[in-house]
Amino acid sequence: MTRIGYGLDIGHGMSMVINGGTIIGNNVSLSHFMSVGTNHDTPAIIGDNVYIGPNSTIVEDVCIGSNVTIGAGSVVTKDIPSDATAVGSPAKVIHYNNPARYIKNPYPVQ
């Protein structure tokens, strides 16, 4: 069963596939045409304050840390550390400057 934290933002509200066992943290922004999948019942864990860009794919047993930006069109096949921006196919960390900058109006979680 998917677990979703407070403050989920679904950008453009269309064409998303999220595996039923995925864990999604607080204040996560999901863009259109993205997917979180698994073939081995090992879905992803997504931390707090994460932006996932359009046309991105998260594959299998990966952990995306908190305060992370995943760029448009990225394919995440390995863990992404907290406070990072990752892009590409396969996704790689490109910097640690101002991650999660696209999280707007976060839900105040205590």
Q: What this model shows, in words?
A:
This protein starts with a strand and ends in a 15-residue tail after the last strand. Strand 13 and strand 14 (92-95) form a beta hairpin. The strands form three sheets. A six-stranded mixed beta sheet has the order 2-5-8-11-13-14, with no helix packed on it. It is globular. Helices cover 0% and strands 32% of the residues. It has no helices and 14 strands. The mean pLDDT is 92. The chain has strands at residues 3-4, 9-10, 17-18, 23-24, 29-30, 35-37, 45-46, 50-52, 57-59, 63-64, 68-70, 75-76, 85-87, 92-95. With 110 residues, the protein is mostly beta strands.
The pLDDT mean sits at: 92
Percent of residues in helices = under 10%
SSE class: mainly beta
- Strand percentage lies at 25-35%
Q: Strand order of the main beta sheet, please?
A: 2-5-8-11-13-14
Termini Cα gap: 24 Å
List the helices and strands and how they pair.
Layout: E1 3-4, E2 9-10, E3 17-18, E4 23-24, E5 29-30, E6 35-37, E7 45-46, E8 50-52, E9 57-59, E10 63-64, E11 68-70, E12 75-76, E13 85-87, E14 92-95
Parallel strand pairs: 1-4, 2-5, 3-6, 4-7, 5-8, 6-9, 7-10, 8-11, 9-12, 11-13
Antiparallel strand pairs: 13-14
